[in-house]
Amino acid sequence: MKKYLLLFIITVFVMSCSKKVEVKGKIAGSSPLERIEFVEASGVATLPLVNIGLDKSGNFTGSFDAPKDGMYVINYAGRQNLIYLEGGQKLEISGNAMTFPNEFVVTGDAKKNNDFLQASQKFLGEYGSKINIQQLMSGDEKTFLKGAQKIEADINKNVDDLAQKNNPGKGILEWKKNDVKVTILNLLANYEMAKRQMSGNPSFKVSKSFQDYETKLEANKDLMVKTIPLYRQYLLVKLSPDFQKFAEAKTKGKTDVTTSEVFAQFLKDRKEISQTAKDYLLAFVVAQDIHPGAPAKNTEKIKKIIDTDITDASVKADLVKMQVAINGLKVGEAAPEASLVKADGKSYQLSENKGKPYMLFFYASWNPYISEATVPVLKEVVNFYKSKMNFVFVNVDDTKDQFVKTSSALLKGIPGNNVYGEKGLESDIAKKYGVYGFKLPCFIIVDKDGKIASRSFVNLGEQEVVTILDKLTGLSAPRVEPNMQQMQQGMQMDPSAQPVNPQPAPTK
Fold it and tell me: Count H helices, E strands: the chain?
């Protein structure tokens, strides 16, 4: 009996610690081409945790691992809003395509917390419209502090009133209290900056009363830096004058130094800043230095900073994912094998291409650029290079049935291997190659030895793509003057084509 009791206790514990959030709902009037994404709002990398499709009636269902209990961003149709979620919850959400996610209704486990959140956001909108911030900022320090303290008291009173009415969980109530403090801290930082500029004195200092108020608001520094990005912004604003002086001295006469390198050096001597804050602040700066087309040398510098200067494992992991998503896998490393299946159900291995270079083309039916812009250019590229390399068309639709329909309709007659990553954007191959909805269509080139030969591209018409393909195949694609490329939309990529034909047109 004791044995079974122990198993029961373990099961309950595992269930209670689940990070999985189950999502289902309906967006009335939605298009099947629209998608819903959830992003961790307090994370250092704004990568979607899940990308969920809707059916023709606007119904959707999915799940994702919530890294932590807290605030998340819902993305839909180019719009976004905040929602508070906890691991283990079943989220039921509904709305109208015209206003979602600016407006939505939550039922299920997340109802109380989000009723509280929506009510507090509504109050802030109405309250903020009644405050003359310009007048407050232009006043003397004593008047300003009195006004800031009144704003804090008014918002906190509303928070307490809404907590009584909606009975939210402890986590969101604590977050909201800290959010109020961060709002006031940013107000104080802007006031101090404005006064410093008006005085013309770089060494301008606020009074002790001002500093004491800031110190009181920052009682939970490490918690705020972990959960509220706006607090990170506040800290960066406060550090900005000192950092500018430091950067000018360190970068004088240098042209190849990244901001991340300089900021990492700057933080090392700031003993008043906790390691937790250093990790999150440096991660924010590092994220700005991760962008498409970054030189390989800079990418390696950033990777080293992530490895050596950031200690928090979750922050480190998020930045690594972001770097792969934006820049692609490291050129020269072995292309990861992944689980793929053909339309007939047979498995497919990328290693089947070994001995010949190949291009991976990731796509999905709900991406609006595929049929209009990508496929015509892809067809010309394949026809030109097919004698010297292979092409693997990887579909990441939600179901295998949709893959079969899409591949048959879009890629019919184009030589290549049509394969499917089961579970779409949640598939093994999408995760290994850093493929997300915002990166579709996506192209990655692999050499004959099965090693990554390029960063990931979203534009097949980039000159870098043609250069790499020419190098790997020994062929030479036609070239034209830049002004001719703007006048024509395609490229007659045939080995016998005349040099006046343009390069592939951009896909976006």
Answer: 17, 14
